[in-house]
Amino acid sequence: MMEAAPMDWAIWSAPVHATLMFVIRDGQILLIEKKRGLGAGKINGPGGKIDPGESPLECALRETEEELRIRVLEPRKLGELHFSMSDFPDILCHVYRAEDFTGTPEETEEAVPLWVPIEEIPYERMWSDDRFWLPLLLMEQTFLGRFVFQGEELVWREVTEGVTIPD
Ligand SMILES: Nc1ncnc2c1[nH]c(=O)n2[C@H]1C[C@H](O)[C@@H](COP(=O)(O)OP(=O)(O)OP(=O)(O)O)O1
Questions:
Q1: pTM for this structure?
Q2: Residues contacting residue 99 through CB under 8 Å, at least 6 positions apart
Q3: Number of structural domains found in the chain
Q4: Best mutation site among 22, 36, 38 for ligand 1 pocket (most ligand atoms within 8 Å of CB)
């Protein structure tokens, strides 16, 4: 991984804002196999792009409901991910964790639910940045991750733990 950032993050801003939601319960994490959209075929948490006029939290709840038909209870925002992409507009992603929900996760047009023991998270089937910040979310630590992609290849990364995360 290169040392100097290939861009000035101080003036970086993202045209696309998105969310991710991770439910952790009984030593397992609720993931999805994404059926369409950006990252189709990969394993990820439920989530998606924020609609106009929607807050990040509203988006995370809506996307989780649309993709898995569950209503997450008392989510906490633990992280932010800044993605600089070569072939897609840059993304700022708000990341939430929760321990409880109502309903039963079910397959939808967008996703297949997948309960996975936290020791067996399939990072090889996920975005290549995930292994650098998901362990922090599992430890209930806050984090700010900055990542530069060339296509699907992660070419630069920086993850800061224990930061104050804005709502
Ligand atoms: N690099 C990386 N790591 C982890 N997660 C992500 C990325 N890049 C990403 O875009 N993501 C996440 C962020 C979002 O949760 C999704 C992308 O949103 P998308 O599914 O395209 O948004 P929707 O609003 O559901 O899509 P459509 O309705 O337009 O199909 O991936």
A1: 0.96
A2: 23, 24, 25, 74
A3: 1
A4: 38
Closest residue to atom 29 of ligand 1, CA basis:
37
φ and ψ at 99, to 5 degrees?
-115, -10
Q: Which CATH number is 145's domain given?
A: 3.90.79.10
**Could you report the per-residue pLDDT of 106-161, keeping only the tens digit for each?**
999 999 999 999 999 999 999 999 999 999 999 999 999 999 999 999 999 999 99
Model ipTM?
0.96
- Which among 7, 36, 148 has a CA at the least distance from the CA of 81? 148
Q: How far is the CA of 40 from the centre of ligand 1 (A)?
A: 9
Residue-number span of the structural domain to which 83 is assigned: 14-161
The rounded distance, in Å, linking the Cα atoms of 14 and 11 is: 10
Contact 48, 108 (CB under 8 A): no
Does 9 fall in a domain?
Answer: no
